[in-house]
Q: What sequence folds into this?
């Protein structure tokens, strides 16, 4: 066989490409189960961090089985809702929403040509009273996502964010800088506004004592304007999708208006028994 002609070169190259592709496909398929398990465990550790069950570094010391066990031990309820805030179905077992699932639902929330169906977004309620919801969007170089937990009074209990390819030392700080994530703690999303939460240069205006006068604004990351804006847009888009759920989950009365039903007294909406409790 003449190994110097063009036919031989083409055939030889084709065979090599096919063999290498087959090997890579086999390896990828063989490792898929392990990759999926690692991704689920990573998602769980991010959710648990947001919910206040430890720092990300502490949770990363656990193996995959321990992370799943921790989640099973601490989760109270997990279910899917629609944009009307209505429960659609329960999430059975250890079913979580990682980046791939969030990407699909991000299309559904935003609508348009990439929409694959009606939005069905997850809610995770933990035994410590915190409710965790995900967010997803576009950073400077790729997707960004994360998990935000809310206390019963709708203040933010914790947050954890991740990214695919943001700039190290700048946009990557949404993941790598605990002080940035800590800024969210104690803030309060405004579910009645289009801009539910803002990440802006300078953060919220301060009063004379240096205290923020607006609860739904934090300071953007210096030198990472595009990533900060992308995270801001992702949070607004996803929290707006949860607005009807969270507004509907507020206590029936949030003011001391429950004096009874005598003439001249302000009527109560819903169950306000907690306002009528007598201190002993």
A:
């Amino acid at each position: 066989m003449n190994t110097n002609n063009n036919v031989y070169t083409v055939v030889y190259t084709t065979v090599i490409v096919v063999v290498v592709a087959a090997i890579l496909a086999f390896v990828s398929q063989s490792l898929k189960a392990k990759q999926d398990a690692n991704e689920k465990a990573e998602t769980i550790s991010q959710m648990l961090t947001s919910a206040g069950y430890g720092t990300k570094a502490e949770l990363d010391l656990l193996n995959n089985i321990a992370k799943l066990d921790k989640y099973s031990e601490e989760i109270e309820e997990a279910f899917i809702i629609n944009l009307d805030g209505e429960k659609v179905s329960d999430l059975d077992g250890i079913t979580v929403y990682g980046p791939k699932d969030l990407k699909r639902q991000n299309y559904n929330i935003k609508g348009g040509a990439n929409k694959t169906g009606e939005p069905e977004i997850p809610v995770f309620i933990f035994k410590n009273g915190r409710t965790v919801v995900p967010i997803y969007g576009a950073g400077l170089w790729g997707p960004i996502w994360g998990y935000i937990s809310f206390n019963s009074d709708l203040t933010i209990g914790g947050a954890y964010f991740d990214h695919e390819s943001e700039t190290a030392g700048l946009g990557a700080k949404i993941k790598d800088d605990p002080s940035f994530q800590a800024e969210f703690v104690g803030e309060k999303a405004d579910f009645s506004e289009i801009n539910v939460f803002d990440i802006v240069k300078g953060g919220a205006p301060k009063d004379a004592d240096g205290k923020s006068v607006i609860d739904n604004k934090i300071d953007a990351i210096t030198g990472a304007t595009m990533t900060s804006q992308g995270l801001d847009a992702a949070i607004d888009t996803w929290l707006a999708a949860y607005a009807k759920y969270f507004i509907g989950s507020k206590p029936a009365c949030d003011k001391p208006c429950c004096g009874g039903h005598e003439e001249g007294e302000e009527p109560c909406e819903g169950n306000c028994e907690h306002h009528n409790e007598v201190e002993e």
In short: The mean pLDDT is 85.
